[in-house]
Amino acid sequence: MAKILVVDAGPINRRFVAALLRNHGHQPLEAPDREVALRLMRAERPDLVVVDIQLADVDGVQLALDLRSDPVGAAGRIVLRARSDLEPEARALARALGAGFIAKPANPVALLAAIERSLADPASLARNSGAADALLGPVIGLVRRLAERREPLEAARSALEFEIRKRLLAEEQLAQSIVTLKEEALHDALTGLYNRRYLDASLEREESRARRTGQTMAVLMIDVDHFKRFNDTLGHVAGDAVLREVGRYVASLARREDIAARYGGDEFTLVLAQTSLETGLARARTLSAGARSLKIEGDDGRLGPVSLSVGVAVFPDHGSSLHAVLESADAALRRCKHSGRGGIVLAEKSA
Questions:
Q1: Residues acting as catalytic residues
Q2: Is 218 within 8 Å of 279 (Cβ atoms)?
């Protein structure tokens, strides 16, 4: 069993060679770069070093020279590996160094044969030092010039990767923008509540869920009393402040499964899932009482107090569909406003 150091920047190639050696009774050591290779050389004294001449941190030619000059090196037992397009120069370099050579990619049989030959013939680098001195300069120059040809390709690859990253980032930003636009399309810009479009689109879905579970649903239609007075006397900025604060308050009374929406103008809707008539009326009373305590700040000081009119209807008692129930709640709201505002009116039973 031989201790063999495999030096290759590519983890897949390195592990492949190591596994091959291990399966044939050898003890492989792995190094991704020159620094690790030299450290393992001194610590483990391997019987053979298999070196890829194209390393990331420093080329394998330099590493081979380091091993050649290191007094505790691998006793001249080196196998160089290189791509097939570098084979003539790499073979010449191997001869100059007294090393073996195998082109990449190599089939396992050929790779093992090259390794076994090098193990069987412990040729010393010192024995070939004269030939090495004569050939090393031109061979190293050739190998490095060939390596330099990779630089434009590496630059092009880096540029391509940069463009791909930019494209992926642009696609992520576009996807996020689409999500944002969808969210904006479903929400009221002033209050942050769902808008009328989302409410109308959701009623059929919520109705199907209520029918499937056999649960009742309550719908509250809410109007800010005398809202026109805020706008006419204090201006639209004050009116917007009132709507934002009322919207925030309505949202605070909505559970995760409920829908709080701005119906339009100064009207809001609260759709309460799995809610009985009694619970719906209790929520309306809480809403009405709490609104009077809202502290709404305007440019010229505190606005208010605010009062709300609320119409309440329940599915399926007040309509055969959730759309019909919403209309019943709206009709109850109108009756509340006509009777003096600031109260709660229950919808009439559907025929």
A1: 266
A2: yes
